[in-house]
Every structure is written in C-alpha cells, then in structure tokens.
C-alpha cells in the first residue's frame, strides 16, 4: 500500500459531468501529440442539485510536474497533495487506440474508474474502464457546475466592470 492507494476511495460513481468530459477531450487534443493525464475528482450529486445518492465526476486534477510525452505520462507521486480524493484517472492515447496498455493495467487498481481518450478526440472517442481494465459504463450527466461556469463565462465586459469598480 502506497500513498496513491490511500488517495483513492471507492464510492458510488453516478457518472461524469458533460462539461468535465468536454474539458478532458479538449485538453487531450491540446496536448497532442503528447499524452494528457489527470486524476478524476467528484462532487456529491446532492450538492449539484440532483436527487440521487453518489458522486458525479466534476473535476480533472492535473498533477504539477507530470512528465508527458507521446509514449507515456509519468506522475511524480511526491507532488500529489495529501487531501486529494481521486475517483480514478483520465489519460489520452495519441495513437487513437482506446484500450488500456499493460502499464495502464498496472496502475488502474488504484481507482474505480479510468477514462482513456483517443485521437482524434471527438465526442465519442473515449471509453471508461474499471480497476481490472474491463469496459465499464460511465453515464454522461448534464449538470450545472456553478464554479467553473462562472469562471468560463467571464467576459471582457465583466473584466471592464471589475476594473471600473
Ligand atoms: Zn494508456
């Protein structure tokens, strides 16, 4: 048991927020031809206004110091904050093969859901796998994420307003 094992918790995962999935797809495309990698964090469904018990994946945590190239992304575990509760991971396969590699399988045991995104990073160019590397169903949930939306919706008008104030 290492640090990483302690970071992951298993809880009912209802799915991934639409916005979070789109963010991961866009980030993967931006990283191409390098591999993109992050950890998945969740929010209680009730906090998002859903009348369901469980967690919705709402965040992708990029670990500072991740070394990335087109073959693999290596995470420096020493840079992972202690309070991180990751549900799993997300990473891209720039070669477009959406299947866990042997190296992937060796790390999947640490979380309950692992998303692999493949080039060319279209809406359906991803699959979810469980800790054994088996295909698993991950529902895409259309839910409002108040924090990130207010950030992304920040326009030049808002900035001007802020400067005037
Ligand atoms: Zn991989």
UniProtKB/TrEMBL annotation:
InterPro entries: JAB_dom_prok, MPN
Any one GO molecular function term: metal ion binding
Domain MPN, chain residue ranges per copy: 6-135
Keywords associated with the record: Hydrolase, Metal-binding, Metalloprotease, Protease, Zinc
Gene Ontology biological-process entries: proteolysis
Pfam families, alphabetized: Prok-JAB
Superkingdom of the organism of origin: Archaea
Descriptive protein name: Mov34/MPN/PAD-1 family protein
UniProt source species: Natronosalvus rutilus
